[in-house]
Design a protein that fits this description.
The chain is α+β, with helices and mostly antiparallel strands. It is 37% helix and 18% strand. The chain is built from nine helices and twelve strands. A four-stranded mixed beta sheet has the order 2-4-3-8. A two-stranded antiparallel ribbon has the order 1-5. Strands 6-7 form a two-stranded antiparallel sheet. The longest helix has 18 residues, at 198-215. The two termini are 23 Å apart. It comes from Limosilactobacillus portuensis. This is Uracil-DNA glycosylase. Keywords: 4Fe-4S, DNA damage, DNA repair, Hydrolase, Iron, Iron-sulfur, Metal-binding. Residues 27-206 form the Uracil-DNA glycosylase-like domain.
Length: 216
């Protein structure tokens, strides 16, 4: 299923990101009360066009990893901490024609952009109620555990600890008083840039599969 966000939270996001280089809006999608909620950084160009989270090249890698532990897109929930595609504006020269061309490549969302979506993400998490959250990469991990959290140190580990929620006044985050299960993972795009990471990532997913069996 595609989640339907409350209009007041969408309006809040719209107001807070006004004037920023963000495009489209890709809602979270999948099963409610799943074993796994996969949390990415933000939609990319393919997601902006097709409105399906993790449907581009990195999404194909993610589906391969999910399949190794017996899951697919329909048996998990997939979202991101930012729901619009962040882009930068670059002017380049076309080598064939010599003409100047404006391009809008993907970029990492800023901390302010992540915070702008924080209430929306908190609402989404409360609706989905996953057994385990799987933050994919540093942006998602730090949204949940704070700026000191690092995917290189925490990948593949089962964590049972409080996560961050947005403060009601929108000024930042505070930690919950209850614990949440998380297993941080490298972002699937990491494999596209460095194939040598693949054995490590595969091991991490096998560990996640074992964690799920124990929690079930």
């Amino acid at each position: 299923m595609i989640i339907q966000y409350p209009q007041n939270l969408l309006a809040e996001v719209h107001q807070r990101v006004a004037g920023r280089n963000l495009a489209g809006f890709t809602p979270g999608q999948g099963k409610l009360k799943p074993d796994l909620m996969l949390v990415g950084e933000a939609p990319g160009r393919h997601e902006e066009v097709h409105n399906i989270p993790f449907s581009g090249a990195s999404g194909k890698e993610l589906m391969k990893m999910l399949a190794t532990i017996g899951y697919d897109r329909n048996s998990v929930y997939i979202t991101s901490v930012v729901r619009q595609r962040p882009y930068s504006i670059k002017e380049v020269v076309d080598k064939k024609t010599g003409a100047k061309v404006v391009k809008k490549p993907n970029r990492t969302p800023t901390k302010k952009e992540v915070l702008a979506f924080a209430n929306l993400f908190d609402w989404e998490l409360a609706q989905v109620q996953p057994k385990i959250i799987v933050p994919l990469g540093n942006t998602a991990l730090q949204r949940l555990l704070g700026p000191q959290a690092n995917i290189g140190k925490l990948h593949g580990q089962l964590l049972n600890q409080p996560i961050q929620h947005a403060k009601k006044d929108g000024s930042g985050y505070e930690f919950a008083t209850t614990n949440t299960l998380l297993v941080p993972m490298y972002h699937p795009a990491a494999v596209l840039y460095s194939r040598k990471l693949e054995p490590t990532i595969l091991r991490d997913w096998q560990r996640l599969g074992n964690f799920i069996k124990k929690t079930n």
